[in-house]
Amino acid sequence: MNHWKFPVGTKLWKEFTRGTTRVETRFITKLLADDAAPGAWFYASFEWNSTQTDTTLASPGAGVPDANGTQHDIPSRANCRRCHEGVPGRVLGFQAISLDYAAPTGNLDLADTIGMNLLSAPPTAPSAGPYFPFPVAATTVDTAAFGYLHANCGGCHNPESPGFGHTPLDLRLDVTKLGTVQAVPAYATTVDINGSVGGLLGKIVDTQITDDSVMLIRMNAPAFPPKMPEIGTEIVDPDGQLTLRAWIDSL
C-alpha cells in the first residue's frame, strides 16, 4: 500500500495554474514493467500558450523559466526524474494513504479504487472511517504536519530514496507505522534528533526552541544550499511554515 506498482501503459497528467492562467500540463507514462529499468517511465511537460488554446512541448533539457509570464518554472526532464525516481513506483501523490478520505462526488478515493476492482491486493474494508487511520492520539495539528511533509518532502526523504544513505530522514507516511504518533516516521526521525543537514547543525525538530529547528531554517532559506525543497520552488510557502510551526510548538 505504500508503493503501488502500476501496469505498463499507465498515464498520468497534472495541470498547474497561477490564478486562472493555465501554465503547464505534465505527463508521465509507464513503458516497461520494471520501474527501475532505464526508460521505464517517460516524462514530458507542455507549456500553455497565452491564449490558453494550445500547448507546446517544453524543452526536455532546460525546461521553461517563468512560463507564460508567471513565476512558475517548467522543470527539465532530468528534474522530473530527480523527484519521481525517489520512490519505487515512480508515482507521487496517488497512493493508498493519499486517497484514504471521503472524496467529493466526481473525485476518486481509495474506496472507489477498491469498488472498481483496480487493486490486485486491496486492503480490508474498515467497519467505519478510513482504511489507514492516524493514531487516536493524533491531533489535527499532527495530521496536518504529517500530511504536508509526506506530500512535499517525502518523495526525496524516505528509505527508498537514493539520498537516504547520507540523510536518514523519513518524511513519507507508512501505512504500517501508524500505531502511535511517535511511530510515524516524520516524528520518529526528526523530533529532537540531532542532524547535520547542508552544513546546519542542530535538532531537525527542536521542541525547546521552534525557530532553531533545522527543518524550518531550511524551508525558510532563500537559496540552495540550505533551501529545501532543493528544486521546484522559488518562494517560501507561508501556509506550510504555519503548519509546521504549529506542530513543533505543540510538541
Please describe the topology of this protein.
Elements: E1 11-18, E2 21-30, E3 41-48, E4 55-57, H1 77-84, H2 96-99, H3 110-115, H4 140-152, H5 185-188, E5 194-197, E6 200-203, H6 214-220, H7 238-250
Antiparallel strand pairs: 1-2, 2-3, 3-4, 5-6
Task: Please sum up the structure shown.
With 251 residues, the chain is of the alpha+beta class. The chain has helices spanning 77-84, 96-99, 110-115, 140-152, 185-188, 214-220, 238-250, and strands at 11-18, 21-30, 41-48, 55-57, 194-197, 200-203. The chain has three domains: 11-84, no CATH class; 95-129, no CATH class; 134-250, no CATH class.
Structure, described:
It is a single chain. The protein is an alpha+beta fold. It folds into three domains: 11-84, no CATH class; 95-129, no CATH class; 134-250, no CATH class. Helices cover 22% and strands 15% of the residues. It is built from seven helices and six strands, in the order ββββαααααββαα. The protein has a four-stranded antiparallel sheet with strand order 1-2-3-4, with helices on one face. A two-stranded antiparallel ribbon has the order 5-6. The longest helix is centred in the middle third of the chain and has 13 residues, at 140-152. The radius of gyration is 19 Å and the shape is globular. The mean pLDDT is 93.
